[in-house]
Amino acid sequence: MQMVCSESSLFSCGRLCGNILACGNHRCQKTCHDVAIPRNAGYEAKLPGNMDKIDSCEKCTLTCQKIRTPPCPHPCMQQCHVGTCSPCSAPLKRSCHCGTLSHSFPCSSFNNFIQEERDKRLSCGGPCHRKLPNCSHLCSEICHPGPCKMATNCQKKVSVWCKCERLKKEWFCSDVQVAFSSLKLQNLRGPKGVGLLSCDKECLKLIEEQRIKEDTERIRQRASIVSEEPPKKVGRRKRHYGSHAMTEKSRFKEITQSIMKWCMVVLLVLLALSILYYGVQGLYSLSDWMNERESKRPRKKPSANFIMH
Ligand SMILES: [Zn+2]
Ligand SMILES: [Zn+2]
Ligand SMILES: [Zn+2]
Ligand SMILES: [Zn+2]
Ligand SMILES: [Zn+2]
Ligand SMILES: [Zn+2]
Ligand SMILES: [Zn+2]
Ligand SMILES: [Zn+2]
């Protein structure tokens, strides 16, 4: 069909429109149509306002598919839009450096902090209190990022002893750690710090005395074992005899005591009887004597009467 130029008007070519949509991110998928607002690839989208009323192209119905700057795992929940996404307000939970407290930050602000600011904000402000790797103490620094500096500089006081545990001193824990590692003393009673001080003359004297005492004791024990025959069951037999002898001895003592007691009783009874006997005898002889005197008296009486006359 031939068409003269004066009669020509707009017509559809049947292909896709492809005009940039108001969102600035997608292209129109309609079949070639009359485009009210043409937008090119470098289209700097402004906020649409009521432009969509006269816009003959599609209206984008997708949700935002942009990647945030700085990136975060939370998707933008807005409708597909022009320009950058609004700052992410999803709450971010982060525990402090020492793990005591949990902080909550808006995602975007946390991600925008520089490292220094982030470390400062994450500190709970309390003592770190993490167990130090080289000793049993807790870090006393204020909640801090990274490993504890006190690990090699623990200022806690620790007791240290000489080998015989007579001498005692207080050292900084860090000094004890250094001493242990340099002297390779781990095999000694480690964390207690025994053996870190050297024994003095007095210690050596006491150790020597103790050694001599133990030696003599050992020799004495050996001698007593040799004298016991047979060597087996020594303890039991010895104890058995011992206990038997003990009971014999105590029984003998008991019998002697009871005999003594009875002897005393008999003696007392005899004494009482003899007192009674001689008392009665005495009384009789006294009355005899009295009677005798009485019988002599009448011979004197007349003379007395004579005197009275
Ligand atoms: Zn879009
Ligand atoms: Zn077309
Ligand atoms: Zn279109
Ligand atoms: Zn986010
Ligand atoms: Zn967005
Ligand atoms: Zn903390
Ligand atoms: Zn320590
Ligand atoms: Zn610490």
Automatic annotation (TrEMBL):
InterPro entries to which the protein is assigned, alphabetical: NFX1_fam, Znf_NFX1
Family: Belongs to the NFX1 family.
Full protein name: NF-X1-type domain-containing protein
Segments traversing the membrane: 259-280
Residue ranges constituting the NF-X1-type domain according to the UniProt record: 23-62, 72-90, 135-156
Natural source organism: Ceratopteris richardii
Any one GO CC term of the record: nucleus
SMART domains, A to Z: ZnF_NFX (SM00438)
Domain of life per record: Eukaryota
Alphabetic keyword roster: Membrane, Metal-binding, Repeat, Transmembrane, Transmembrane helix, Zinc, Zinc-finger
Keyword Membrane: yes
Example GO molecular function: zinc ion binding
